[in-house]
Amino acid sequence: MENKEKIGLTEKKYTLLFFLVCSLFLLWAIAITMGDVLNKHFQDVLHISKAKSGLVQFSMFGAYAIMGIPAGMFLKRYGYKNGVQLGLALYAFGALLFIPASNYLSFNLFRVALFILSAGLATLETVAHPFVAALGNEKTSDQRVNFAQGFNGLGAILGPLLGGFFIFNESSNGLDSVKILYSCIAAFIIFYFIIFSVVKVPNLNDPHAEETNSDVQNTNNDTPLYKQKHFIYAVIAQFFNIGAQAGTWAYFINYTVERMKYSETTASYYFSLSLGLMMIGRFVGTYLMKFIKPNILLAAFTLCNVILCVIIAQDLGMISFVSLISLNFFLSVMYPTIFSLGLKNLGNKVHQASSFLVMAMFGGAVFPQLMGKIAEKNIAHSYYLPIVCYAVILLFALKLYKPKSNS
């Protein structure tokens, strides 16, 4: 009992570094949730359908599928610090490309900009998860990742707020405000790149590579990743998790405008409120994991979202809308918990495994387009689709999460 009380979230010597790495979670969340505001804005300004606007998410999450492995290889060879700097450089460059894309009103050029920007986000995610896990004791690694994801939640709140204030309040039907906003973001990311370049990063070992788990017998850290069944199942679960999340976010504003008759600006603020619940959910999840096993908490939150999606699809007015807002509270623990469970007992293959788990975010490229096709006919009924995703996550949480020895 005494040992458990002495183990903190991180160590004093890592305090500044821990804060900086947690800040990365905030920075990429702003970009991802801003993409969901752009989704609706492009429908209006560039006159594209809901299904075609889903290509915004395809461009963003498609970058994750392509960049995951290269980012992992870069991380393994050049380390955490250089990995962060590469991610920030791509992030800034993609944001700067919004200037010509806005000038030419080109949806395709926006997609290129979003792809490059998201390649930076994918790199940051590949690096940041094992990075933050390495900044302390293995016993608190799940809590540490969830705590860092709380900053991701804060960034997710800021994304729609910035988008709603600057983009939907634009007086003209052009994209000048988009250009200005992303130019400012690029400038800040460059500034952050400079700050991070002067910070010293010590040699770190990911605790997942050294952990011993009482649930695992005769675990062989030399076992190839493709034989680590819990890891394979985690990748599959993450694919469906991000698919559900991306689809939910992509059409939140559409649902609010079409079903609740609110303005786009008001809808973006409700979206921000919903993402605020996600941030709260991550801190609540971090606390609850002191008493509840991560996989059990994951299963409980997943089941709650199945129920909420059924209510949303019934189109019951305010009851369905409150359910839509509430989805993000229960989505909160899914990504970091699946990620952390997937990295368990992988020995020196943690970095490579992290790459594949980031690549699994390709689910976010697939499901928004599918939801968009359903949404063209009935926006409420499109929320039946995430239930399929939650069924897969529930199976992982209850049956498939556990590392096993391979004969």
UniProtKB/TrEMBL annotation:
Any single Gene Ontology cellular-component annotation: plasma membrane
Major facilitator superfamily (MFS) profile domain residues: 16-406
GO MF entries: transmembrane transporter activity
TM regions (residue ranges): 14-35, 55-75, 87-106, 112-135, 147-168, 180-199, 231-252, 267-284, 296-313, 319-341, 353-371, 383-401
Membrane topology per record: Multi-pass membrane protein
Top-level division of the source organism's lineage: Bacteria
Keyword check for Nucleotidyltransferase: no
Locations listed in the record: Cell inner membrane
Principal location class: membrane
Annotated keywords: Cell membrane, Membrane, Transmembrane, Transmembrane helix
Matches recorded under PANTHER family: L-FUCOSE-PROTON SYMPORTER, PROTEIN TSGA
Name used for this protein in its record: L-fucose:H+ symporter permease
Organism for this UniProt entry: Chishuiella changwenlii
Lineage: Bacteria, Pseudomonadati, Bacteroidota, Flavobacteriia, Flavobacteriales
